[in-house]
Amino acid sequence: RAGLGALHCGLGHTHTSGFLTTLGVPSISSSNFKKRERESGKAVEEVAKDSCNQFNEEEKRLSTTGNEEVVKLGVSLPGGKDLTGEDLRATLEEAIRPFLSHDSVKKLAPAGSSQRNESVNSSIGSKAPKIRHYGGSQSSDFRTAAGIAQFNKGNRYLTLATEKMGLAQTHITEQNTDKIDKKRKRDGERKSTKEFKKARRNSRKKKNQKTNSAEKREEQPGTTQVHGISVEFCKGRKTLLRRGKELEAVSQTQGLSDFCSFLKQQSRSFQVVLIAHNGEKFDFPVLINALRRNNLLELFLATGVVLVDSLKIVSTEMKQKGSPLYSCKSKSLSDVYEVLLKEKFDAHDAQEDATALSRILFQSPLQ
């Protein structure tokens, strides 16, 4: 059984010995292991050969039996019913006759699926991993046979192999093989449903879209390249630079505190409204998190400020046929500005962005 288990799990003597000794079970010698491996390997080869012969006979039977008046096209037809009729057969034969010549066959692309081949390769690979060298010994043949037997018979090949070796069956082995085979059958049935295939197709589509988006982002210039702002150490201190020129800067806490004071002062005379393009997903969360980190969120909320995302306004306008933005294909601030005002601006500059958004909302045909 140790030899059969090693073949089934893709283990050699070293790994089997390590597993047994870790459990506190005495190991077996290398020569004894090879002897047991040969015994179980020959039994597995017989099981694999019998299963292959069985499937060959079944294939022969299916290819030679059947009613001559029935055109077998499989169960994928409506209702799962076969097509019948001599007239239909004659018409189909006439249609495919031009493709039956030897030259025509050479031009046809193979329409078969390689999934079953890949499945067999995967099964064999689990018995003979590439990281271990079994190809130079008889063990490679045994492991290949184990993979084929498992593919043809499922994990039940283990019980068939033990019968070939004349060993008594154990309840644990039978219970485990039945459990795994039932799970394999359920998975196969689940994966063959239309719902699963549709979900898998959608998942693959989303994954491809995500990959394409990531590739596009990699092709775009970095943030520093766009607005030219960077932070560097000059004379032992952090300095904010824009295209090499030093900018006046204060700490984040000081800047936010001054900002809240400004809002409080303005709120005495006006209802303060902060508008940002795509602010709901970017600007506002960044601002709120920064205020919270600096313990200034309550001071900010006390001003009664209202937050508005201009992207929602643009999205609504783009859906209305009479809107000047109906023909606009992009919701970006620069594209919206160009469509409405027929000119461009220096995007990604804070002051320019604010001015552009103000003109879009209050000085463009949109109003």
The DSSP helix count reads 17
Strand content: 5-15%
Number of strands: 7
H/E element order = HHHEEHHHHHHHHEEEHEHHEHHH
Return the structural class. Answer: mainly alpha
Strands ordered across the widest β-sheet: 3-4-5
Q: Taking all residues together, what is the mean pLDDT? A: 82
Radius of gyration based on Cα positions: 36 Å
Low-pLDDT sequence parts: 67-71
* Helix content, binned percent: 55-70%
- Largest pleated sheet: 3 strands, antiparallel
Shape: elongated
- Report the span from N to C terminus: 83 Å
Cofactor: Mg(2+)
InterPro entries: Mutator_transp_dom, RNaseH-like_sf, RNaseH_sf, TREX1/2
Biased composition (Polar residues): 112-125
Biased composition (Basic and acidic residues): 176-196
Would you give an account of this structure?
The chain is mostly helical and 367 residues long. It is 60% helix and 7% strand. It has helices at residues 2-9, 13-22, 30-64, 86-96, 102-107, 115-127, 139-153, 157-164, 171-191, 194-219, 223-227, 252-267, 283-293, 297-301, 310-318, 333-341, 350-362; strands at residues 70-71, 83-84, 229-234, 237-242, 245-246, 273-276, 306-309. The longest helix has 35 residues, at 30-64. It starts with a helix and ends in a 5-residue tail after the last helix. Residues 197-209 have a biased composition (Basic residues). It holds the Pfam family Mutator.
Per-chain topology:
Layout: H1 2-9, H2 13-22, H3 30-64, E1 70-71, E2 83-84, H4 86-96, H5 102-107, H6 115-127, H7 139-153, H8 157-164, H9 171-191, H10 194-219, H11 223-227, E3 229-234, E4 237-242, E5 245-246, H12 252-267, E6 273-276, H13 283-293, H14 297-301, E7 306-309, H15 310-318, H16 333-341, H17 350-362
Parallel strand pairs: 6-7
Antiparallel strand pairs: 1-2, 3-4, 4-5
